[in-house]
Amino acid sequence: MLRPRRAGPRPFYGDGYQTRDLLHVEDLCDLYDVVVRRGERLAGDVYNVGGGAPTARSLWEVLGELRRVSGVTVPVRHGPVRPGDQPVFVADVGKAERELGWRPRIQPEEGVAGLWEEMAGRG
């Protein structure tokens, strides 16, 4: 079993319920492929990139998933909320889905499990 390095508690700024949409790198690469294939036709257009609402998770949820797949509890220490930090950020990826036919496929739970497997040398 992979042993985590002993780096001490990980800092959490705020209460840990800050929410972000998560995007797996394979999904991002799929989007890059679509954009490259369309080339000049997309010049000057703007698309939000992220996982969207279905992949939104809090820091606590991500750590819970890591604990579920690894059996490791990551210690945390709390710090004050960072100035300007958004409590919730979720990208609206609807335009990319409508116009490019792209949407994220990999859910955060699958991504966390895959990352752990790679780190443990089993992937």
Task: State the gist of this model.
It is built from four helices and five strands; from the N terminus they run ββαβαββαα. With about 120 residues, the chain is of the alpha/beta class. The chain has one domain: UDP-galactose 4-epimerase, domain 1 (Alpha-Beta Complex), CATH 3.90.25.10.
Write the layout of secondary structure elements.
Blueprint: E1 10-13, E2 19-21, H1 25-38, E3 56-58, H2 59-70, E4 76-79, E5 88-89, H3 94-100, H4 108-119
Parallel strand pairs: 1-4, 2-5
Antiparallel strand pairs: 2-3
Instruction: Tell me roughly what share of residues is in helical segments.
Output: 25-40%
Pairing-aware structural class of the strands and helices?
alpha/beta
| CATH class annotation | Alpha Beta
Task: Indicate the low-confidence ranges by residue numbers.
Answer: none
The CATH topology: UDP-galactose 4-epimerase, domain 1
List SSEs in N-to-C order.
EEHEHEEHH
Mind describing the biggest β-sheet? Answer: 3 strands, mixed
Q: Order of strands across the widest beta sheet?
A: 3-2-5
Count helical runs. Answer: 4
What is the count of distinct domains?
1
* Global morphology: globular
CATH architecture: Alpha-Beta Complex
Span between N and C termini?
13 Å
- Report the strand count: 5
What is the percentage of strand-forming residues? 5-15%
What is the arithmetic mean of pLDDT? 90
Q: What's the name of the CATH homologous superfamily?
A: UDP-galactose 4-epimerase, domain 1
Question: How would you portray this structure in words?
Answer:
- This protein has 123 residues and is α/β, with parallel strands linked by helices.
- It has one domain: UDP-galactose 4-epimerase, domain 1 (Alpha-Beta Complex), CATH 3.90.25.
- The protein is 37% helix and 13% strand.
- The protein contains four helices and five strands.
- It has helices spanning 25-38, 59-70, 94-100, 108-119, and strands spanning 10-13, 19-21, 56-58, 76-79, 88-89.
- The strands form two sheets. Strands 3-2-5 form a three-stranded mixed β-sheet. Strands 1-4 form a two-stranded parallel ribbon.
- α2 (59-70) packs across α4.
- The radius of gyration is 17 Å and the shape is globular.
- It starts with 9 loop residues before the first strand and ends with a helix.
- The model has no long low-confidence stretch (mean pLDDT 90).
